[in-house]
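[recover] target loaded
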């Protein structure tokens, strides 16, 4: 059974930092692409960053230079380090895994709230 367990969300003041984690099980994590999405109230879910099995990364312009995605294949975990947080970063953040065979899995989401 595939499981994605997210943690690390919370309330932080503008300018602060948070680190999200997504621990996976039941998949071959090392050959998967891992991504983080977010969904703000009243808005569509958007892709903000992903990391391939070869550690190639891309970032949305809105988070470039402030957020860093990383992965630890030994721990089957993907991370999102978020620095210089802004109120507009407030959203539910979702971990997404695309396995090498093409199956897609989602975490349960974790709330990030940035106060001004």
């Amino acid at each position: 059974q595939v499981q994605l367990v997210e943690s690390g969300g919370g309330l932080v003041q503008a300018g602060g930092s948070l680190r999200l984690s997504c621990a996976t099980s039941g998949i071959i994590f090392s050959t998967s692409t891992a991504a983080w999405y977010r969904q703000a109230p009243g808005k569509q879910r958007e892709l903000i960053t992903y990391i391939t099995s070869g550690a190639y990364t891309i970032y949305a312009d809105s988070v470039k230079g402030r957020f860093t995605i990383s992965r630890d294949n030994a721990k089957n975990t993907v991370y999102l380090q978020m620095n210089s947080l802004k109120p507009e970063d407030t959203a539910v953040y979702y971990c997404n895994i695309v396995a090498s065979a093409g199956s897609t899995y989602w975490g349960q989401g974790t709330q990030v709230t940035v106060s001004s």
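[recover] notes: The chain has no helices and eleven strands.
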